[in-house]
Amino acid sequence: MTAEQRRNLHAFGDYVRKTLDPTFILSYMAPWFRDDEVQHIQAEKNNKGPTEAASLFLQFLLELQEEGWFRGFLDALNQAGYSGLCEAIESWDFQKIEKLEEYRSLLRRLQPEFKTTINPKDILPEIAECLISQECEEILQICSSKGLMAGAEKMVECLLRSDKENWPKTLKLALEKEESRFSELWMVDKGAEDVKMKDLEDDEMKTCDVQIFYKEEPENQNLSQNSCSSSEAPHTYSPLKPRNYQLELALPAQNGKNTIICAPTGCGKTFVSLLICEHHLKKFPQGRKGKVVFFAIQLPVYEQQKSVFSKHFERLGYKVAGISGATSDTVCVEQIVENNDIIILTPQILVNCLTNGTIPSLSVFTLMIFDECHNTSKQHPYNVIMFNYLDRKLGGSSDSLPQVIGLTASVGVGDAKNKAEATEYICKLCASLDTSVIATVRDNLEELEEVVYKPQKFFRKVELRTTDRFKCIISQLMMEIESLAKSIFEELGTITLGGLFQIQNSNFGTQKYEQWIVKVQKECAVFQMPDKDKESRICKALFSYMSHLRIYNDALIINEHARMKDALDYLKDFFRNIRAAGFDEIEQDLTQRFEEKLQELESISIDPSNENPKLRDLCFILQEEYHLNPETRTILFVKTRALVDALKKWIKENPKLSFLKPSILTGRGKTNQNIGMTLPAQKCVLDTFRTDKDNKILITTSVADEGIDIAQCNLVILYEYVGNVIKMIQTRGRGRARGSKCFLLTANADLIDKEKMNMYKEEMMNGAILILQTWDEAVFKEKIHQIQIREKIIRDNQGKPEPVPDKKTKKLLCKKCKAFACYTADIRMVEKCHFTVCPIVHLHSATVCLEMASEPCRFKCPASCLLQKPNCYYYLCF
């Protein structure tokens, strides 16, 4: 038994639990199981059923250390009749069993009809090959003792646990042989999607192609399920009585230890940070004062935390202030820090202040709290701050250093493939934060589990459109543009752009294709030729072609995940903006090509037969959940802003879903055609979603992953949305209400596999945390210290000398048309982040292409310059 086999068996344990009745193989496992363990498993089945018995069996199995038990387990499965499960474990391929979930789901819904119409004695001989021999005996025994309906229920229970891939077809043949009217419902030939079910209220509801059900029961060892984000503050700021588990989380920090607090969403982790701050400030003797800095990465979180801390501490007589990038230019940071007890900061503010000397040292603070501290890596501002801290610590500075507290949902495991590597990864995070304690709830788990509700998790695999004429037309247009671009490359002759034009048409509509486009554009920006007129013409043409390819690529992504109509509207908006900005010959040609196909595209987009199967499944989920609970509150996660807008339009225009009154939440930045939300707009959306009961669904991008305070939701839908294990825990944690559910809806089986791997990594992370919590504190501190020394050596060796500025004046050109804009000697920096040109007379009638836009740039810089060369339409903002 290798470590990998043990790990795989643990990871795929759900399949074993859903399939195996362990009492049928206990006799074969006698060499490895003690008598008391056998009795315990048998009692578990009698009291709680086969699934709980299988969980206990698996627990005992994974604890075995004797040689040969894994082979013995496989032999026992085979001898007992579990050939399908045995085959799956031997190959670690559970696809055959997974495909049965469709029929299990159907049989569960048809169970009332099954037990009232089926005589189990009649069909048992025909389906016996799909069951375990003991199961057949139990069915007959129950029929004799309790009646046919009870026997039919037992037969359903056994079929739901069958690992034989042919059982749905075998059952169909048995029903037809008996001429049972139930066979009309059991339409396995067409798949469960076409089954007509009499008891369903909505005749249009259909089952998905594959549905894999995971119910994640709270486990005593799962101590870091999800973050109670920094925003989860109590709404009542009168003195609150902390729960016992909150006191447990706060205790190491209150004892003065640098601590990472890892706690699940909804537990009141922000309240824990308030407890720590209050205790810290009150412990100082007369004549001395503490000073706390709380870091929040996102601006909405910064605003929330400033409000929370102000309301809590000002009633206690402490002064609270906040500084963010939006306010740093209008306030004196040094005075704010000096005159307040608690300062809420976005971390880059402190990085800038340490660099320019506004704040001479971290020793001005006595406590630093890092929200979402798992970000402390690489060149993140959190890590830059801690570089300063560790350099002083390891350099033997006499200055006192502040206590460090980290708050997180999940410490993560990085690329770790086993528990040892996960432990090393977590140690590195602890070293970065100089912490030797990881605080999780261990003594008060029961209380925690009464407060924190872990959502049921569903994986839903759906199909793409069988035919997609829209995609064919757009792909053809893209191939035509590629041909035009290739002709430009051929014109270059021996001069190439690094062999960039290696295109595979199968990549249309993917992020990989967009990355290639960006790469070509970057190469064009620095491309040079002796003939400058030719260089300008070629680069301008390539930029135009790449821009159109990028928009078409975006449209294909929208088409894949939303309606054709939404993708077409996206294209029409783009070409409308192109016309408004002005035409050159290339733009006219590309626009004409699109307009020639426009009528056909519009006809296709309104054809009902082109409905997106993904949306049909999404509609089914929403209808079903709101039918079960009309008060359901939903967060729908998607990958892009364009999809946010498209799905909002779809819901509003869908008569079955318009009652949801969707709202949207996106980030603040601008990408392509999408303009981000301002901070006031984000706050307005969240306040409305929190207070307006008619607003039942929030559609959002990754901006809602962490930190932002979102009202309790009982339904989280991940629409083609998967990240790493930290993102999985954070998005799942948005479902905070009791009985909440989390769906992953995807047409990509790889995404389901990735999410399963995230679930395995979460277990691995929790196990690694438990290991570290058993270490002697002195051993842990020494481990952390050695990592810090090693990392400092690497950091020092990587330090590069400041480059000597080239005093020779150079020209600044437009990266698209290569027109002259100004000389580098005329550029000035303002506030170390803005640029201006002085004197203004040196500017020429061209614009430097930093960003493409359909309308003039409106950045509110200290000084701006907008000069336009005809038919270029790129803008420089100083």
Automatic annotation (TrEMBL):
This enzyme catalyses: ATP + H2O = ADP + phosphate + H(+)
Keywords for the protein's UniProt record, in alphabetical order: Acetylation, Antiviral defense, ATP-binding, Cell junction, Cell membrane, Cell projection, Cytoplasm, Cytoskeleton, Helicase, Hydrolase, Immunity, Innate immunity, Isopeptide bond, Membrane, Metal-binding, Nucleotide-binding, Phosphoprotein, Repeat, RNA-binding, Tight junction, Ubl conjugation, Zinc
Where would you find this protein in the cell? Answer: Cell junction, Tight junction; Cell projection, Ruffle membrane; Cytoplasm, Cytoskeleton
A GO BP entry = response to exogenous dsRNA
**Matches recorded under SMART domains:** DEXDc, HELICc
Q: Where is the RLR CTR domain?
A: 796-878
Give residue ranges for domain Helicase C-terminal: 614-780
| A GO molecular function held by the record | hydrolase activity
Q: Where is the signal peptide?
A: none
The UniProt entry's sequence similarity note says: Belongs to the helicase family. RLR subfamily.
Protein name as annotated: Antiviral innate immune response receptor RIG-I
Q: Which organism was this protein described from?
A: Sus scrofa (Pig)
Gene from which the chain derives: RIGI
